[in-house]
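Folding Problem: From Residues to Backbone Shape
Fields: amino acid sequence; protein backbone structure tokens
RECORD BEGINS BELOW THIS LINE
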Amino acid sequence: MHTHTGQTFAPTSTLLEIHVPDFSKVKDFYGTLGFKTVWERIPDGFKGYLIMKMGDNILCFWAGNEHVYEQEYFSQFPKETPRGYGIEIVLMVKDIQKFYEEIKSKLEIREPLQLRPWGLEDFRVVDPFGYYLRFTSYHNILDPKNAVK
């Protein structure tokens, strides 16, 4: 376990790093969803970084400025390309119905809360940079009972 700013975190082996050109939009959008800033390195060239947390969900954001477009791999695509094209970010929340009721009037919902064929409820939104977010009930993704029947 690691401790930072009085909070304890279990170590994780996989992180999702989202490349974005503007941390203020990130903090506004994800703050509306209940994410809190854990720490931030103010963008300075390629050195910008932001960590946000909601429950057990941790998201990492890189750049926060125009340098995001100069990253080696992504620089081959036009700036207008949605950053999250072809990616779905799945976030688990403890009380999906309550969470949905709290945010549905604050953000554009792309797919409303509904029971899915695999037995879990979820809903979907898109962030300001084109990342597709699926909010779902807590479950063990490694359990085969969660496979689509």
About this structure: The two ends are 37 Å apart (CA to CA). The first strand starts at residue 2 and ends at 4. Residues 2-146 form a domain with the 2,3-Dihydroxybiphenyl 1,2-Dioxygenase; domain 1 fold (CATH 3.10.180.10).
